[in-house]
Amino acid sequence: MSYVLPLLFVIATIVTMVVLMRRRIMKERFTVWWAVLSIGVVVFAVFPPLLPFVAEHLGFQTPSNFVFFVASLMLLLMSVQFSVEISQLEEKTRTLAEQLGILRAQTEQRSEVTTLALTPETAELVESQEQTADSDD
User: Fold this and answer.
1) Cβ distance 66 to 54 under 8 Å?
2) Exposure string (b/e) for 76-93, b if CB count within 10 Å is 16 or more?
3) Do residues 26 and 1 lie in contact, with contact meaning Cβ atoms separated by under 8 Å?
4) Cα torsion 50, 52, 57, 60: sign
């Protein structure tokens, strides 16, 4: 019965991850870490003697030191993954901003060339024809 609380934690975690994925709030690749955590909690909750056995064989003084080490390692891995994701998104944002700036400059350059090449009378004629064409549609 000592594994009821960890199992409730696992069920709550899985339900939360499924709900977040279905609402498209969280991507599937981020739920992998939570699934790994849930599996670990279930294994050590269902087989309580396994935690001291693994901790002792890996050289930890107490099982709680092993748990804190694994938690720290998991947080480190998640931080690295998030840092990579953020770097990729920043690069995409920078590229898109540059492309937008180039497109705006080209658009402004084209509009200046056409208006500079026309005499004022011709520009008025072109504008009136465009307005007529827009009203016909």
Assistant:
1) yes
2) eeeeeeeeeeeeeeeeee
3) no
4) positive
**In terms of DSSP H, where are the helices of the chain?**
4-22, 28-46, 50-57, 63-117, 120-136
Q: Within 10 A of 10 (CB to CB), how many other CB atoms are there? A: 20
Q: What is the phi/psi pair of residue 50, to 5°?
A: -70, -35
31 with 42: CB under 8 angstroms?
A: no
Q: Which two tokens stand for residue 5?
A: 């609380």
Question: Distance (Å, rounded) from C-alpha 66 to C-alpha 58?
Answer: 8
Q: pLDDT for 49-100, tens place per residue?
A: 999 999 999 999 999 999 999 999 999 998 999 999 999 999 999 999 999 9
Q: With contact defined as beta carbons under 8 Å apart, do 28 and 21 qualify?
A: yes
DSSP annotation of 50 reads H
pTM over cut 0.70: no
pLDDT tens digits for range 4-36: 888 888 888 888 988 988 998 888 888 888 888
For residue 38, how many other CB atoms are within 10 A of its CB?
Answer: 20
